[in-house]
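so my prof wants the structure for this chain in the tokens format not the other one, which i didnt know existed until like an hour ago. anyway here's the sequence
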Amino acid sequence: MFIGIDLGTSSIKMILIDKKQNILASANANLTTQSPKDGFSEQNPKEWVDATIECLEAIKIKKPKEFCETISIGISGHMHGATLIDKDGNVIRPCILWNDTRSYQECLEFEKQNFDVRSISGNITMPGFTAPKINWIKKNEKENFNKIFKVLLPKDYLRFVLTGEYFSEMSDASGTLWLDVKKRKWSNQLLSCSFLEEKHMPDLVEGNEQTGFLKKELKDKFNFNKNVKVVGGAGDNAAAATGMGITSNNQSFISLGTSGVFFTPTDNFLSNTGDAVHSFCHCLPNKWHLMSVMLSASNCLDWICAVTNTSIADTLNNVESFYNDKTSIKNSSYFLPYLSGERTPHNDPHIRGSFHSIKTNTNAADLQYAVIEGVSFGILDGVNSILKVNNSFDNIFMVGGGSKSSFWIELLASLLNRKLSVCDQSEFSAALGAARLAMYQDDTIDNKEDIISEIKINTTYEPFKDNIDILLKRYSVWKDLYNSNKKIAQNFNFN
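here's what i got, hopefully its the right format
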């Protein structure tokens, strides 16, 4: 048996699978996020640990016999978070998350070096990445900076609690800005930009390699029958890709989760830093991937539901009815989905969400549609940015909470003018990816290449040709709205 843990922003998901990759049991536990100031986003790592223990206990209750036969555990986690550990293994301060934008000034300073930061890291410096967060801490919280013994990514802190070992793996480490992504090793040059050394970093492995064993007290607590191995795992999107079997350069996926992601593997190191495309290692050896990220996707839907006091189901029904009327679409309002700034393609921490072309007859359904459409336009921005350096992908899969909406997928298929497929068990794709990586540590599996296969497609959605021209015309207007709002947003004060 194998356990996959997915440390998400809003919850932890966990699954137990057998050798045939059947999901025997699942569990989840909610997490909270704190925003002490505009642009700030933090979590207490203790919540991750408590939620993990809660999920382990829940799965043990559901499948006690199978649970106790667990061979290994894989961990997926949200990327970029700065979790600071002192010499005694204690957390120094709350973890600064991936969607935190406070370190925009430090980003500018980080790139002012006598060498090309982007060519080594493969990425433009953005506030969401780990390195500028540390630079902000050095500038604003000197006492905390001076206590740093290790800097860990969120899932790697969870690993430390489970095993007592300091490890990370290539896909997650790529999002720190301290990794030489092409060479798959820490860069002393990049670390020096944050006043750190390699000793402050965890050791590096590939995602399917062992990083230690579950602590004895946890083994005994949960009555595991053998020493349970813990593997490298993956950053959340690389894990989701692995869960869907996306490892070759003709595959890709769109994630409509808290953030919006377009992900496609590559056989070689490629980059497009000018459009803030993420260039990362994949979680398997000798694989890389390109990724566009918009900071606010399904949370835009959550926001408009709260504002209009409408459930998600009712909102999507309203939007679908609205979408079926071409006149309504043509005359609809526009929404910029930048509630927390934006990454691809703008790398703009200042920009914020806004409605445009609101009229006296604008109603809730109009605004709700504008939000869904605006998020979809943001996804298209990301796809177009990646197409500039890689156009080899054919098959696009859907994952994330938004993938449960048939209407939303149909709209995206029309906008992208491509087929989109929804996979079986897509809500557990990252946890399944983590569990699949754990399976590599089972010595009784002869053909390890068969572990990561493409999972079953439930439904494929075709573009709705009648609306493509309308959507693309609206997309052109929408893009211009960003430029007109940029100067205004730069005057916002996040301090």
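also thought this was worth mentioning. Residues 364-387 form the longest helix (24 residues).
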